[in-house]
Amino acid sequence: MAYIGKTPVLGNFVKLDAISVVNGQAAYTMQNGGVNFTSYDNVNQFLVSLNGILQSPTDSFTVSGSTLTFASNLSTGDVIDFVMVLGNTLDVGTPSDNTVSLAKLTATGTKDATTFLRGDNTFAEAGGGGKLLQIQNMTTTSGTSTTSGSFVATSLTDTITPSATSSKILIIATGNLNNTTGSQWTYATIAKDGTNLGNGFGMTGVYATGDNHSACTMTFLDSPSSTSSLTYDVRIRVTGGTGNWNQQVATSSLTLIEIGA
């Protein structure tokens, strides 16, 4: 609703606690619910009734902090009927039940059915840390052979872009290994952007020798501290002979899982 002239001050209206008169005393402490009251802007907000007569602000009484002081000492038999405080500036009082909507809150974050309000006044999704944020997966039936003593990339590779620097990436790779020379070994590892993770991860059991094929499953939890696109791949090397990744015509897979902090 529009107003002509100055908009009325809207605010809380408070009836203060009863005050007992002390003979020969002019100053009294104002309280609301047993707590000293100071929530006002000026003396003109007060309605003070003494012996059934409304008193004139400034002329008949003054206020300072939580103290109400009459112009003269009161005597036995005087009665302070009530003290009302009208329209505390910018104080809307206590909202009624079910009257505050999400739109009225100043908290940051997304306000919807999937979030809750945290103690730091931000909205966050339920579940906290450890939530799965995204999953990337690729499969291939292609194999890779090498005679190199250094790790070389296989065809098993995929990329992922973390949504936060605090996220972790869980890498799971499956396939099979072998070496065509019985006295030599084939090792496998996982690499990120061309760098081996753990410098030979899985050397204690992820190997094959001779013409026998060994199933290979590798897992690694990486903390990249990045929101850039990351490329992970499986790599193999040999101690001699010819090493093979996925020589058996089978499906190998690489799964990348982003886990929220």
Task: Describe, in plain words, how this protein is organized in 3D.
- This protein has 261 residues and is an all-beta fold.
- It has 2 domains: 14-85, no CATH class; 132-259, Jelly Rolls (Sandwich), CATH 2.60.120.1340.
- It has no helices and 22 strands.
- It has strands at residues 14-15, 25-29, 31-32, 35-36, 46-50, 53-54, 61-64, 67-74, 80-85, 115-117, 123-125, 132-140, 144-146, 152-160, 168-179, 185-192, 195-196, 207-209, 214-222, 230-238, 243-245, 252-259.
- The strands form 6 sheets. Strands 12, 13, 15, 19, 21 and 22 form a 6-stranded antiparallel sheet that branches. Strands 14, 16, 17, 18 and 20 form a 5-stranded antiparallel sheet that branches.
- A hairpin with a 2-residue loop joins strand 16 and strand 17 (195-196).
- The model is unreliable at 200-207 (pLDDT under 50).
What is this entry, summarized?
With 261 residues, this protein is mainly beta. The chain is built from no helices and 22 strands.
Give the termini distance in whole angstroms: 49 Å
CATH architecture of the largest domain: Sandwich
Q: Detail the poorly predicted runs.
A: 200-207
Content of β-strand: 35-45%
Element-by-element helix/strand order: EEEEEEEEEEEEEEEEEEEEEE
Task: Give the helix/strand layout.
Elements: E1 14-15, E2 25-29, E3 31-32, E4 35-36, E5 46-50, E6 53-54, E7 61-64, E8 67-74, E9 80-85, E10 115-117, E11 123-125, E12 132-140, E13 144-146, E14 152-160, E15 168-179, E16 185-192, E17 195-196, E18 207-209, E19 214-222, E20 230-238, E21 243-245, E22 252-259
